[in-house]
Amino acid sequence: LLMLISFPIPLFPMFLEIDISDLPALLGAFALGPLAGVIIELMKNVLNIALEGTKTGFVGELSNFIVGSAFVMPASIVYMRSKNKQNALYGMIVGIMSMTIIACFSNYYLIVPLYSKAFGLEAIIEMASKANKLIVDMKSYILFAVIPFNILKSSLVSLITLLIYKKLSPILHM
Questions:
Q1: What's the gap between Cα 127 and its chain centre?
Q2: pTM for the complete prediction?
């Protein structure tokens, strides 16, 4: 349901919307381990398709699953070594970096090429350029849209997790 609550951010293309749908996956990964987090990422995308359908020919959902998994898996692996606030913070920083790096590669080599088959690369870059004039090609799209968007989104989810995890921890471990 958190995926349904999303909003665009100025300077980002309209198809990049901020949501906190990775929050349950990160909480689940911290409580139950990295595999649980990845399964939650998969389930949220399948449920979103069931509730809303797909506007992207499943490419957006694939991208969301890839980058969400790249966020929660390393964050939880670090946290699982020693479950304390310092490792949670360190794990989330590692997760933010991992998500951002994986988003760059997946967008460059998989996601944008898949979208390009349907819409054409020029149309995608033009759409992105309307939001941010610095975006003029694929590399500038990665630099000025993909990187800051993924840092912002994963940082927001991390901040909320820091604020609520300890309070929810007893419930998550029942």
A1: 21
A2: 0.90
Indicate if the alpha-carbon torsion angle 104, 106, 51, 74 is positive or negative. Answer: negative
Tokens 């139950």 belong to 32
Q: What is the CA radius of gyration of the chain?
A: 16
**String of DSSP letters for 152-167:** HHHHHHHHHHHHHHHH
CB-CB contact of 172 with 31 (8 Å): yes
pLDDT, tens digit, 9 for 90 and up, residues 64-89 = 999 999 999 999 999 999 989 999 99
What tens digit of pLDDT does each residue of 23-50 get? Answer: 999 999 999 999 999 999 999 999 989 9
What string of H, E and C letters represents the secondary structure of 84-131? CHHHHHHHHHHHHHHHHHHHHHHHHHHHHHHHHHHHCHHHHHHHHHHH
